[in-house]
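Notebook entry, structure prediction.
Reason for the run: the old model in the group folder had no record of what sequence produced it. Starting over properly, with the input documented here first.
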Amino acid sequence: MHNIKTVGKSGQISLGKAMAGMGFIMQELPGGDIVLKRAVVVPMNERLLDPVVHAELEAAREWRRNNPAQATDLTALASKLGITEK
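New structure, fully documented this time:
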């Protein structure tokens, strides 16, 4: 489906309410055409393909495998923290 959009005096194009709030990558092609691709911004420290982040996640997974979840003895924890019942 093709729509014709006109650039206004302020240099903006309205894509419509359905696109409100979405992020886009704007690619300018050599012939002057512009391609918009929908995009999502991912914070630097959450990039799963980054080797450092991947290694950190794998270390966390390994820790989880070696330290399975277990019930906490609240009485023992309170005693360790020096908390007394009221």
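Summary: The chain has two helices and two strands.
The old model has been moved to the deprecated folder.
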